[in-house]
């Protein structure tokens, strides 16, 4: 089993693949690798909603359901949330999510 996990960020026509250590949040995967569109102002403390992503439908059901605090924060995103919205600070990179595709909203 690998100690790395891949995350694919799609921002408009740009597609960026990053590889991070298992256990890293998808938000940190983006900010540590300078992926545009993921701000993460709060550093992953679930208090700003600037790491909003749309999980590719193929991957959505593989994630644990969002908690109450995350659902509340999703209502404060700058772009209207959808049924596939998540905060990337709450998505851990694991063997099960290796290769996950996350779409970045046009506005954050």
Kindly describe this structure:
- This protein is α+β, with helices and mostly antiparallel strands and 108 residues long.
- The chain has one domain: Ubiquitin-like (UB roll), CATH 3.10.20.
- It has three helices and five strands, in the order ββαβααββ.
- The protein has a five-stranded mixed sheet with strand order 2-1-5-3-4.
- It is globular, with a radius of gyration of 12 Å.
- The model has no long low-confidence stretch (mean pLDDT 95).
In short:
This is Ferredoxin, 2Fe-2S. The protein has 108 residues and is of the alpha+beta class.
Question: What key phrases describe this protein's structure?
Answer:
about 110 residues, Ubiquitin-like (UB roll), about 25% strand, 5-stranded mixed β-sheet, alpha+beta, 3 helices, globular
Q: Number of folding domains?
A: 1
Identify the strand order in the major beta sheet. Answer: 2-1-5-3-4
Strand coverage percent: 25-35%
CATH level-two architecture: Roll
Major sheet attributes: 5 strands, mixed
CATH class: Alpha Beta
Low-confidence spans? none
Tell me the structural class.
alpha+beta
| Count of individual helical segments | 3
Topology pattern, helix = H, strand = E: EEHEHHEE
Helix content: 10-25%
Shape, per Cα inertia axes: globular
Termini distance? 35 Å
The CATH topology is given as Ubiquitin-like (UB roll)
What's the CATH H-level homologous superfamily? Beta-grasp domain
Mean pLDDT: 95
Instruction: Work out the radius of gyration.
Output: 12 Å
Number of strands: 5
């Amino acid at each position: 089993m690998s100690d790395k996990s891949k995350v694919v960020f799609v921002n408009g026509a740009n597609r960026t693949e990053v590889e991070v250590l298992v256990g890293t949040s998808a938000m940190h995967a983006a900010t540590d690798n300078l992926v545009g569109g993921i701000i993460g102002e709060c550093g992953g403390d679930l208090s700003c909603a600037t790491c909003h992503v749309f999980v590719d439908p193929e991957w959505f059901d593989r994630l644990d359901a969002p908690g109450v605090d995350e659902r509340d924060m999703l209502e404060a995103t700058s772009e209207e949330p959808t049924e596939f919205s998540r905060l990337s600070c709450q998505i851990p990179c694991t063997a099960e999510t290796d290769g996950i595709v996350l779409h970045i909203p046009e506005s954050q």
